[in-house]
Design goal:
alpha+beta, 5-stranded antiparallel β-sheet, 41% helix
Length: 726
Amino acid sequence: STVQITHAHNTVSNFKRFHGRAFNDPFVQKEKEKLSYDLVPMKNGGVGVKVMYMDEEHIFSVEQISAMLLTKLKETAESNLKKPVTDCVISVLGTAFDPFLGGRNFDGKLVDYFCAEIKSKYKLDPKTKVRALLRLYQECEKLKKLMSSNSTDIPLNIECFMNDTDVSGKLNRSQFEELCADLLQRIEMPLLSLMEQTQLKVEDVNAVEIVGGATRIPAVKERIAKFFGKDVSTTLNADEAIARGCALQCAILSPAFKVREFSVTDATPFPISLLWNTEAEDTEGVHEVFSRNHAAPFSKVLTFYRKGPFELEAFYSDPNGVPYPESKIGRYVIQNVAAQKDGEKSKVKVKVRVNTHGIFSVSTASMVEPVKSEECEDVSVETEVEAQDQRPIENFSDKNIQQENSEAGTQSQVQTDGQQTSQSPPSSEPPSEENKIPDVKKTNEKKGDQPPEAKKPKIKVKNVELPIEANLVWQLGKDLLNMYIETEGKMIMQDKLEKERNDAKNAVEEYVYEFRDKLSGPYEKFVCEKDLQGFSALLAETEGWLYEEGEDEAKQVYVEKLEDLKKLGTPIEMRYQEAEERPRLLQELGHRLQYYATIAGEFRNKDEKYIHIDEMEMMKVEKCVSEVVEWMNNAVSAQAKKSLDQDPAVHSSEIKAKLQELNNVCEPVVTQPKPKVDSPKEENPLSEQSDYKTEDMGEDDKNSEMPQQNGECHPSDQNTINMDLD
């Protein structure tokens, strides 16, 4: 972008790959040569970025730079959504990938090619000038996109590239594919790894969807299509697929949205193992707790038997398969472990977890202690059956550890041995009997055939939480993390203040340009020649000040400058607005006066529409109309004596007030409804009906007793609507 070229040394980009790496990592040193900004080592050996912030040199860690980016994205999202944003979803890498292969690598091949050509043809070395190199990267990216849709020669032209020299070149798709032959060969390796992990054959794959900007390169499409033996699909937007997926995941996680149910099971891409020292000092125990592609989030509980504190070390089982030089995750010391009172080893349960973010941790540890009978009333205890045939899920060489599995998302209490869910990997070992609930039906069947067994002794136990000391590799300590959070908060506040300062400065600049244009346009008639010259001079002076000594002033200075300008500008603007509104309002007032005067005249002429109105009320209308007419005539006369560059004799607000006053007095009077007149009633409306009814019914029918249902009339009785029914 233009900003990146203009502020090349202070614009940070392409830093994501530096996470989790030391400054002296060969990869970092190689990438360092391609960057426009400076990388420096941090105190902890990590990667730092040196930039100028608030006119001072600062060094920020890669984590801090990432936080700044997320903060900016948060502000952008809040601005578009018009509501606060508190959570986000960040995309992660797939289960098979080449982290060092992407569109930027193809751009790099083009840049190297044209650097050599420019050096040979123009005797210029773009790599010696950061801005020139960045411009070349931008043009090469455009060239790459054009070659994806055209197989002919595509020109490259850059004006004033270096030393006011224009450079040009050309390349076609065939040459591009030759340059990138080594990159294209690397496409197949992740695909082979993926098929090996899933244990699928190419024939088992029904469809292949490709996303990402680099998939537009025809050679990339051809390699993937050739591997799977079928055409690839590009129905998804190549650039927005990740963002759309994140948006969908946000909707799934948010309680504010209701979406169609999706079953999403994440996976752990790298196997994780634990290493510990046994009580025999010359031996070590090791176990892979999470295999490759193990379901995540997920928790497991490991049971150790120890007499004192012990240490666990977590690491990636396959260091060569991890795209980082450091395979260690961290060391965890389980503290406050002590032997039982009888000198036996204590049972210690350690819960390890890969959370929903894919982060491994030793989350909790607890020691199981027997409880005396007199203590049972005061402490929370659990009952444990000591079964002779009890066997752990997995046995190890030192026989001091056993494992329990639990699906992530369950509560944090210790899970029952052998409980597995659909996501847990199958286990060939028989489950433990600890806390196992017996089958009631089978128990009842056995009771009738076998003599009652003696009750097994029960031991009351309690779980004592143990502190864990975590020493994490490349993860920020609490003190450093808190310091970074505090620093980020200060920078957010500083950005807010800087934005307010820039807004105040821009307001002055905008006022100068806008008012200067209007003074030679619509405002020209509303200012006298003397005031026009003085105000124009002040605007020109303010413009010069903005680009010289006023370039970097405090917010309050700009606020005061704007106030000084408005002291002269606001009266001019007011006269213009008054001249625009006053004729319309006077016309509206005149129409209303004519309307009420007409009604008063019709009243005097005994018009039936208004004859019902009281004469005293109508006299109020006539008086109000007369007074407002007089006021309007005086106002129009006074305004006619004023020129446009003078303040008006009557303001639009006064006309609005008079119009409101007129309506308040007159409208309730002239809109009075006529009184309702009742129509005359007919005398004895039922007399004739009763005679008619008597003749129709006859004497016998009157005296007969007919059974009737409640509320039901005879269907032939036409006058039932006038009868009272009980």
